[in-house]
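Tokens as discussed.
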């Protein structure tokens, strides 16, 4: 029996053309030998027919399993990756003094591996959780440090020191000729991007500003973030960067002002525009609004999805619940694991908790979550409400 994989399910986006050709030949050979698994794969994409199978049929199936409409499109994408890598090796970011800005350290090493030589700045204040106000950078930094110290358990001075590296670096951009912002489509990234665009709009640098904005990657079935991609994919994304012009800078300022407003009306109005300068920002802001407490349950979307996960799969460890959230339940994954742990606390510590958790002698990812009677009742009310 053939053990051919059903899908070249790579999450890093890199495909090898010779490997895909080999897979197509193996699939065709297995199908001609009437192996059930191979025939089932073919029938998912090619209707039954009398004419003999050809290599082109198997290549079509391989392309579809890799997430492409056709073999020529898969081949063209692989060739584009090869061209991007070659062009990066020839010049890359060496033509200008460049600073790469990212809301985490996840691609710093990958950029180096790919061949980028510019400086790297991590600015990773998680604006998707906690208080936001339209303050001076120093005052905002202190507000955020106080919140992050409270939820993380670190000393406030340590939280402030970590934030200060990013905030103060934004005042030291004069020596760069090019700033490149690397951001994906989720609310963690897009809220930080809004703030950065707002800062750059308020105090324009002499440097050229460019944006790599990623919402999906060909061949990656569930794209979560740039950090999951292979170095070749960063070279490919580099060719797709776009200049940051006035409409996008203005969107950043409008988004930041709406995010820091006392009521949600301004943010709702901004989302309703579709944010044409960067549509993915509007979608991320819409997802951010879903974290506001619902009128009927008082739950944000992440809280409700967590209850559903524990109902469907529990009792289960916190780490596994987070995995389910990111892989299957969350429509626009944005949380880190520590942020998820923080968001669980109101469900566990409320006077009438919705979740019960096992003893504290275990590290938190291994502690077991279960629904309380109140949690079951809330979910039951949601189900009843959905049926009316």
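Sequence:
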């Amino acid at each position: 029996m053939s053990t051919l994989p059903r899908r070249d399910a790579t999450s890093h986006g890199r495909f090898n053309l010779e490997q895909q050709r080999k897979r197509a030949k193996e699939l065709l050979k297995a199908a001609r030998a009437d192996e059930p698994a191979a025939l089932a794969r073919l029938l998912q994409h090619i209707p039954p027919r009398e004419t003999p199978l050809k290599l082109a049929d198997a290549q079509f199936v391989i392309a579809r399993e890799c997430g492409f409409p056709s073999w020529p499109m898969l081949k063209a994408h692989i060739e584009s990756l090869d061209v991007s890598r070659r062009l990066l090796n020839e010049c890359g970011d060496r033509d200008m003094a460049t600073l790469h800005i990212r809301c985490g350290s996840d691609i710093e090493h990958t950029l180096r591996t790919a061949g980028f030589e510019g400086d790297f700045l991590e600015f990773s204040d998680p604006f998707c959780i906690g208080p936001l106000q339209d303050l001076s950078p120093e005052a905002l930094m202190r507000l955020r440090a106080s919140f992050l110290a409270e939820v993380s358990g670190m000393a406030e001075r340590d939280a402030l020191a970590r934030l200060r590296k990013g905030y103060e670096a934004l005042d030291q951009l004069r020596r760069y000729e090019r700033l490149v912002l690397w951001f994906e489509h989720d609310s963690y990234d897009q809220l930080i991007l809004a703030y950065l665009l707002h800062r750059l709009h308020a105090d324009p640098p002499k440097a050229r500003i460019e944006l790599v904005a990623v919402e999906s990657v060909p061949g990656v079935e569930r794209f979560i973030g740039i950090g999951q991609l292979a170095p070749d994919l960063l070279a490919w994304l580099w060719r797709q960067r776009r200049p940051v012009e006035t409409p996008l800078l203005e969107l950043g300022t409008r988004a930041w002002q709406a995010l820091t407003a006392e009521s949600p009306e301004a943010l709702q109005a901004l989302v309703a525009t579709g944010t044409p300068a960067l549509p993915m920002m509007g979608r991320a802001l819409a997802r951010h609004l879903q974290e506001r407490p619902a009128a009927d349950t008082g739950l944000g979307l992440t809280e409700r999805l967590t209850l559903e996960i524990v109902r469907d799969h529990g009792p289960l460890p916190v780490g596994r619940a987070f995995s389910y959230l990111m892989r299957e339940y969350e429509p626009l994954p944005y949380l880190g694991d520590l942020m998820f742990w923080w968001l669980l606390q109101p469900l566990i510590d409320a006077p009438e908790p919705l979740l019960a958790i096992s003893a504290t002698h275990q590290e938190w990812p291994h502690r077991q979550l279960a629904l309380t009677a109140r949690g079951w009742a809330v979910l039951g009310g949601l189900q009843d409400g959905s049926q009316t």
